[in-house]
Amino acid sequence: MLSIAEILHLSPVIPVVTIEDAASAPDLARALVRGGIRVLEITLRTAQALAAIEEVARAVPEIRVGAGTVLSVGDLQRSADAGAAFAISPGATPDLLAAGASFRIPYLPAVATASDLMAGFAAGYRHFKLFPANVAGGVAALKAFHGPFPEARFCPTGGVSLQTAGSYLALPNVLCVGGSWITPPELLRRRDWAEIETLARQAAALRVR
Fold first, then answer.
1. Is residue 209 one of the residues assigned to a domain?
2. What is the set of active-site residues?
């Protein structure tokens, strides 16, 4: 099993996708792999999410599939049971920080403030999602965090685009970014895997430290 640091190094962009039809998830994952992406976050926002994670984990071992929008310890457990290789939250709670620190799959909590980071550090974490990145200060906030928290490493997500991803990836404390622009809902509805592959290839070509 890969650590969260190793997972965040797999691709410069983690596609963040909401799946309405679990049966389409393996085809989506294959399109991402063909485009050079090796990691995928499926958000727990639909009734099909856990089934989609299970389908990808079973059918497309070339990609590491994780669960996003993990809001409780129960979500964390159900994600791991479905075959998720990692789990990500849009924030963090004391219960999640405690459970995730020694859980059977890697857990990435999210932060938006220095106080959030201090709570994460106290719980033993050094890797975080910055969310929502564009609201929480974006590149400027990450530069400011680097001084007092030089060990922290980030995956900024929320409002990141192909046009802005490079400015995040140029920072020494950013390992990758999360983005939904690779898997827009319209392309998913049309099952336009060729266009998603093209978008994945553009994202995979972004520079990452």
1. no
2. 41, 129
C-alpha–C-alpha distance, residues 36 and 46, integer Å: 26
Compute the 3-state secondary structure of the chain and give helix, strand, coil in percent, each to the nearest 5: 45, 15, 40
Please tell me whether residue 108 adopts helix, strand or coil conformation: strand
Number of domains in the chain: 1
Which pLDDT score, from 0 to 100, does residue 123 have?
A: 98
Asked if the structure places residue 130 within a domain, the reply is: yes
Grouping H, G, I as helix, E, B as strand and the rest as coil, residue 182 is coil
Question: pTM of the full predicted structure?
Answer: 0.96
CATH number at residue 152: 3.20.20.70
Per-residue pLDDT of 154-186, as tens digits, reads: 999 999 999 999 999 999 999 999 999 999 999
pLDDT at residue 80 in the model? 98
Domain that holds residue 64: 4-204
